Amino acid sequence: MKTVLTADQLHAGVDRLGQEINQFYNGQPLIIVGVLTGSIVLLADLIRRLIMPLRVGLVQASSYRGAAIDPGQLTINFDLLPDVKGRHVLLIDDIFDTGKTLIALVDELRKHNPASVRCAVLLRKQGRQAVMMEPEYVGFEIPNAFVVGYGLDYQDAYRNLPYLAALEEHEIGQKVH
Ligand code: IMP
Ligand code: MG
After folding, report:
1. What letter does residue 170 receive in the DSSP assignment?
2. Would 177 be classed as within a structural domain?
3. Alpha-helix runs per DSSP H in the chain
4. N or C: the chain end with fewer CB closer than 10 Å?
5. Distance 65 CA to ligand 2 centre (A)
6. Is 97 a catalytic residue?
């Protein structure tokens, strides 16, 4: 694996995201909604930089990949979502790749009549987008490689790495453990 972003670089990116979000919402109450499971590390780091009255919700979105790196069918679970009616919602995900996950989540969330929905992601993969939507907040633009660490997984492994690393060609398609 090759390191793409060090822990220090990631923290500086999260600082920047926090500042932008604080500035935009300007003290208005916010519900931050993390997309399980990839957003948990970002969520934990980001909420400690936010200064508005804040609630935290979670949604689950998974496109089963197995040993592949291409997404399959998307499943969404809103059981852990608090009541968002009339409230400002910020969806948080680890990475914006094709964008299909976030656009589906935004569409679903809108049905619950929030005051607004915006999106923040730690990473945006360059040249991969397949939807007419962009996240309002992006921590880092990265080249098109499969990355792990800081919440992101390959076959559910590597989420605990404190830095971000790209898998090398020969590591893709192998069983991890
Ligand atoms: P999208 O729907 O194509 O934007 O894919 C977004 C989801 O796929 C993210 O929430 C991640 O869980 C996963 N994903 C996409 N690219 C990567 C990657 O490079 N490493 C790990 N997970 C990824
Ligand atoms: Mg994910």
Report:
1. G
2. no
3. 7-25, 40-47, 100-110
4. C
5. 11
6. yes
Our answer on whether the CB atom of 99 is closer than 6 Å to any ligand 1 atom is yes
Residue 75 lies in a domain: yes
pLDDT at 89: 98
Nearest CA to ligand 1 atom 3: 98
* pTM over cut 0.70: yes
The pLDDT score that the predictor gives to residue 176 is 79
Number of domains in the chain: 1
Q: Which CATH number do you get for residue 41? A: 3.40.50.2020
Does 65 have pLDDT greater than 80?
no
Which residue's alpha carbon is at the smallest distance from atom 19 of ligand 1? 146
Residue nearest to atom 20 of ligand 1 (CA): 147
What pLDDT score was predicted for residue 66?
65
Give the type of residue at 73: Q
